[in-house]
Amino acid sequence: MSRVVTVFRNRLVESSRPAYGTVADEMSTLARTMPGFVDVKTFTADDGERVTVVTFADRASHDAWRDHPLHRKAMERGRDEFYETYSIQVAEETYRAEFER
Fold first, then answer.
1. What single DSSP character describes residue 39?
2. How many CB atoms are closer than 10 A to CB 70?
3. Residue 36 DSSP symbol
């Protein structure tokens, strides 16, 4: 089975930042409880674009997260309130190399 990686790029509506922070924390906590969760990282570029990379162990785990009712509700709220723009890319891992000293 190959891991599934989601790249979520977004720009926030400035006035939504306080409420967004709360929901983002709740979703991160929920994701970490999902079977098959591997990791999540969020970065903010100098121009304000945010990028979140979420990895699940397999497609079934990813799809369970995508379809979780609380996540669905948060996604709807994101479109209605939080995001100026966003894009989502989902890919199955075809190669991985790791190094640790």
1. E
2. 11
3. T
> Hey, what domains does the chain have and what are their CATH numbers?
4-92 (3.30.70.100)
In three-state secondary structure terms, 95 is: coil
pLDDT means per 10 residues, the chain with 101 residues, are: 95 94 93 96 95 97 97 96 97 94 96
Backbone angles phi, psi at 9, to 5 degrees: -105, 135
The structure tokens 């939504």 sit at 16
> How far is residue 9's CA from residue 86's CA, in Å, rounded to a whole number?
5
Between the alpha carbon of residue 92 and those of residues 21, 27, 50, the distances in Å are 28, 22, 22
Distance set, CA 1 to CA 4, 43, 44, 82, 93 (Å): 9, 27, 31, 34, 9
CB 48 within 8 A of CB 11: yes
